[in-house]
What we know:
Shape: elongated
Strand content: 15-25%
Mean pLDDT: 83
Amino acid sequence: xxxxNGAALADISFLFLIFFLLxxxxxxxxxIPRQLPRIVEDDFIMEIQDRNLMVIQINMNxxxxxxxxLHRDAIHYNHTDELLGTPTQPSLxxxxxxxxxxxxxDPYLPMVVETDFGPGIGYQRTTGGWHVISVQNDMTTSYRxxxxxxxxxxxxxxxxxxxxxxxFFNMSFEAxxxxxxxxxxxxxxxxxxxxxxxxxxxx
Length: 203
């Protein structure tokens, strides 16, 4: 019986391996680190004025609606790509910046209070201790839409922290020491409230 020449089998195996590595797709889990809020006593009630609250709702069709006391008529995003802004409406990051900064001390935006943030920053007028972002999603909201909203919230706060780091310490936020990072975080905290999922319907 003539024997088959197997010298090329190794080369063929490597070609198949390279082919599958190039064309295969791999799904990666997405996530954002979150620190859970502290446990409070049952009789502890914190009242939040309407001006200090921004509500972001994600319905069953992954449509996003943003409301606050200034924008009483909700700003709607019909697709997660629209969160980056459209020719007719601002991006979610822009709405977040307007809400958190309240540069003109608008009575329909969060309360502005002067606070001492320590050496290098000193006294600054900020809404950091008052503003709250409330994210509310439907029971059937997709994970993709939920994460897209969370990403834009984090992006807005990270932009503010980066700008403040360069303004007060002349370096990026990542390059700051632990004490300076804590100061900038106190200046622009992420005050996020995650509500229990509900049935919003298609709205």
